[in-house]
Amino acid sequence: MKFYDRLEELDYLHKVYRQSADNARFTVVTGRRRIGKTSLLLKAYEGEPMLYFFVARKSESDLCESYLDEIKRVLDVSMLGKCDRFIDIFEWLMEVSQKQHFTLVIDAFQEFFRVNSSVFSDMQRVWDKYEKTSHINLIVCGSVYSMMNKIFKDKKEPLYGRGTGELRIKPFRPLVLKQILADANPDYTNEDLLSLFSFTGGVAKYVQLLVDAKALTKEAMIDYIISPNSPMLNEGKNSLIEEFGRDYGVYFSILSCVARGCNTRTEIENVIGKEIGGYLTNLEREYELLKKRQPMFEKSSSKNVRYELDDAFYSFWFRFVFKYSYIIEIENYQKLKEIIMRDYDTFSGLMLERYFYAKAVESGQFTRIGRWWDRKGHDEIDLIAADELDNKVMFYEIKKDYNELRVEQLIRKTDSFINATHAFKDYSVETRGLSIRDM
């Protein structure tokens, strides 16, 4: 699959590179696994002198050997003698960068915790020593949120405050997914587009896997994902166990509950059978996997709370792959496909709401976007989008099937919302139904 989008990110990285010609820059690039961080960095600096160091789980001396080869290839300079410590290479490069302008990308930066945790304090010393005289464009990249946050946002850590910029890579927007699917399958249907969004969440690697496999329809995508050698079957486990450590079982149970529709703390605790307040906080703030949703204009920060898995792929994986892992263990892939097809309309209907939310954000037309439900659970509005500059507000009901839309009920719910919140009373109000036709 060719490189798509990321125009704002590329512009930012190009700007940082130009700035580093005058003053050293230290940029922290983060984003979930498979989001496309490495591809973005390679694209941004193609044609420029760029060193790419990957922190693999091997001995420090082996890493240093590969790094020295990379330096020789890119900068055509060699370090005298054998080097077994990364910090010696880093300090040498900081010296070289006083006369030479180049980019150094250190990927999987958090893995130095395993290789040699003293690297972080040593880097602080060296960076502070050479920062004002260096012309290096230093970029460190990582996907394990908990570790990257610890390195750069914990005041007790040596590299706290050393970064001069931060770039967070996010999933592809709806318009980009439409472009990708149109290029790969000009005859795609909106059902195919919804499936691509529902199964990948716009995560670049998952999109690439489906496009490269020519799995471009709903049925073909399910066949690819639920197949004996599919890399997506173990993806949830492989990408999250390292994040959660030894408590991964509890975290997986919580995420599985949320993916199945248990979206309040009480509901989740009733299923799991234990108090989970601390786990929910970690999933929301540290791992950024759950979102704590509240109705628009809810005054209390602790009432009427619903939890939502903030990643569409994980929503799918925990809803179907993790839940039915016992079926995968006996290799009955056909039965699991039948279950997915049976439940797909319900699942994709929820994903359609997310799609239109993302589309509203992408449009740039609104200053406030959210949802609303009353405390009794009687009335719920799927999407509210307001422009507070022009005093306009849109209320949407979202159903996958156009024939199930009930705009007259939405009008009643809109009145209930305004009476309950006293918001948007003087606004121009519009109510509208959205279905898969409107994608």
Helix and strand arrangement:
Blueprint: H1 7-20, E1 25-30, H2 37-44, E2 50-54, H3 60-75, H4 86-96, E3 102-107, H5 112-115, H6 119-130, E4 136-142, H7 145-153, E5 165-168, H8 174-184, H9 190-200, H10 204-212, H11 218-225, H12 235-244, H13 248-259, H14 265-272, H15 277-286, E6 290-293, E7 306-309, H16 312-322, H17 325-329, H18 333-363, E8 368-373, E9 380-387, E10 392-398, H19 407-421, E11 428-434
Parallel strand pairs: 1-4, 1-5, 2-3, 3-4, 10-11
Antiparallel strand pairs: 6-7, 8-9, 9-10
Helix pairs in contact: 1-2, 4-6, 8-9, 9-16, 9-18, 13-16, 16-18
Write up what this structure looks like:
The chain is α/β, with parallel strands linked by helices and 439 residues long. It has 19 helices and eleven strands. The chain has helices at residues 7-20, 37-44, 60-75, 86-96, 112-115, 119-130, 145-153, 174-184, 190-200, 204-212, 218-225, 235-244, 248-259, 265-272, 277-286, 312-322, 325-329, 333-363, 407-421; strands at 25-30, 50-54, 102-107, 136-142, 165-168, 290-293, 306-309, 368-373, 380-387, 392-398, 428-434. The strands form three sheets. The chain has a five-stranded parallel beta sheet. A four-stranded mixed beta sheet has the order 8-9-10-11. Helix 19 (407-421) links the parallel strand 10 (392-398) and strand 11 (428-434). Helix 9 packs across helix 16, helix 9 (190-200) crosses helix 18 and helix 13 (248-259) packs across helix 16 (312-322). It is globular and about 75 Å long. It starts with 6 loop residues before the first helix and ends in a 5-residue tail after the last strand. The mean pLDDT is 95.
